[in-house]
Amino acid sequence: EIGTIAPLVEREIPVGRWFHIETYLRATDGADGEFKAWQDGELTFHATGKMMETSWAEWMTGGVVDSLESAGSELYIDDAAISRERLGPLPPFEREP
Questions:
Q1: Other Cβ atoms closer than 10 A to 51
Q2: Which residues lie below 8 Å from residue 10, measured CB to CB, with a gap of 6+?
Q3: Residues 6 or more apart whose Cβ sits within 8 Å of residue 66
Q4: DSSP letters of 32-56?
Q5: pTM across the whole model
Q6: pLDDT digits (tens, 9 = 90+) for 28-41
Q7: CA 40, CA 88: separation in Å to the nearest integer?
Q8: How far apart are CA 97 and CA 94, in angstroms?
Q9: Alpha-carbon distance 77 to 49, whole Å?
Protein backbone atom coordinates (compact mmCIF):
# COMPACT_ATOMS: atom_id res chain seq x y z
CA GLU A 1 0.00 0.00 0.00
CA ILE A 2 1.26 3.47 -0.90
CA GLY A 3 1.19 5.93 2.00
CA THR A 4 3.07 8.60 3.91
CA ILE A 5 6.81 8.31 4.50
CA ALA A 6 7.73 9.27 8.05
CA PRO A 7 10.90 11.40 8.41
CA LEU A 8 14.03 9.84 9.93
CA VAL A 9 15.00 13.30 11.20
CA GLU A 10 12.74 16.30 11.76
CA ARG A 11 14.28 19.20 9.80
CA GLU A 12 12.71 22.58 9.20
CA ILE A 13 12.99 24.21 5.81
CA PRO A 14 15.03 27.36 6.48
CA VAL A 15 13.67 30.77 5.53
CA GLY A 16 15.97 33.41 4.07
CA ARG A 17 18.97 31.19 3.30
CA TRP A 18 20.06 28.61 0.73
CA PHE A 19 19.74 24.92 1.53
CA HIS A 20 20.39 21.74 -0.43
CA ILE A 21 17.84 19.00 -1.15
CA GLU A 22 18.81 15.77 -2.87
CA THR A 23 16.56 12.79 -3.63
CA TYR A 24 16.95 9.29 -5.01
CA LEU A 25 14.05 7.31 -6.48
CA ARG A 26 14.13 3.82 -7.89
CA ALA A 27 10.89 4.18 -9.82
CA THR A 28 9.21 0.79 -9.85
CA ASP A 29 5.80 -0.70 -9.33
CA GLY A 30 7.35 -3.76 -7.62
CA ALA A 31 8.71 -4.49 -4.15
CA ASP A 32 12.22 -3.29 -5.14
CA GLY A 33 11.34 0.43 -5.10
CA GLU A 34 13.37 2.85 -3.01
CA PHE A 35 13.18 6.51 -2.05
CA LYS A 36 15.79 8.56 -0.14
CA ALA A 37 15.97 12.28 0.61
CA TRP A 38 18.77 14.37 2.12
CA GLN A 39 18.66 17.94 3.40
CA ASP A 40 22.07 19.63 3.60
CA GLY A 41 23.74 16.22 3.45
CA GLU A 42 21.70 14.57 6.23
CA LEU A 43 19.48 11.62 5.30
CA THR A 44 15.98 12.70 6.29
CA PHE A 45 13.73 10.15 4.54
CA HIS A 46 14.21 6.51 3.47
CA ALA A 47 11.58 4.05 2.31
CA THR A 48 11.64 0.78 0.39
CA GLY A 49 8.96 -1.30 -1.26
CA LYS A 50 6.30 -0.37 -3.77
CA MET A 51 6.65 3.35 -4.49
CA MET A 52 4.34 3.81 -7.48
CA GLU A 53 1.45 2.28 -9.35
CA THR A 54 3.55 2.20 -12.56
CA SER A 55 7.28 2.44 -13.36
CA TRP A 56 6.77 5.78 -15.19
CA ALA A 57 8.11 8.87 -13.39
CA GLU A 58 8.32 12.59 -14.15
CA TRP A 59 10.90 14.97 -12.62
CA MET A 60 10.26 18.63 -11.85
CA THR A 61 11.36 21.29 -9.39
CA GLY A 62 9.12 23.51 -7.32
CA GLY A 63 7.63 23.89 -3.90
CA VAL A 64 4.44 22.98 -2.09
CA VAL A 65 3.60 24.79 1.13
CA ASP A 66 0.76 25.23 3.54
CA SER A 67 0.16 27.72 6.34
CA LEU A 68 2.20 30.60 4.92
CA GLU A 69 2.57 33.43 7.41
CA SER A 70 2.35 36.14 4.73
CA ALA A 71 0.43 36.65 1.53
CA GLY A 72 3.54 36.69 -0.65
CA SER A 73 6.54 34.42 -0.97
CA GLU A 74 9.47 33.81 -3.31
CA LEU A 75 11.20 30.54 -4.10
CA TYR A 76 14.62 30.44 -5.79
CA ILE A 77 15.88 27.18 -7.30
CA ASP A 78 19.46 26.86 -8.50
CA ASP A 79 21.74 24.06 -9.72
CA ALA A 80 19.06 21.45 -10.47
CA ALA A 81 20.58 18.22 -11.79
CA ILE A 82 19.72 14.63 -12.70
CA SER A 83 22.53 12.17 -12.03
CA ARG A 84 23.15 8.43 -11.77
CA GLU A 85 25.21 8.98 -8.59
CA ARG A 86 24.81 11.09 -5.48
CA LEU A 87 26.26 14.58 -5.88
CA GLY A 88 26.10 15.72 -2.24
CA PRO A 89 25.83 19.26 -0.82
CA LEU A 90 29.50 20.22 -1.31
CA PRO A 91 31.22 21.26 -4.57
CA PRO A 92 30.02 21.74 -7.20
CA PHE A 93 27.10 23.01 -5.05
CA GLU A 94 29.23 25.17 -2.76
CA ARG A 95 27.42 28.13 -1.25
CA GLU A 96 27.93 30.84 1.34
CA PRO A 97 26.88 30.05 4.96
A1: 21
A2: none
A3: none
A4: T-EEEEEETTEEEEEEES---SSS-
A5: 0.73
A6: 888 898 999 999 99
A7: 8
A8: 9
A9: 30
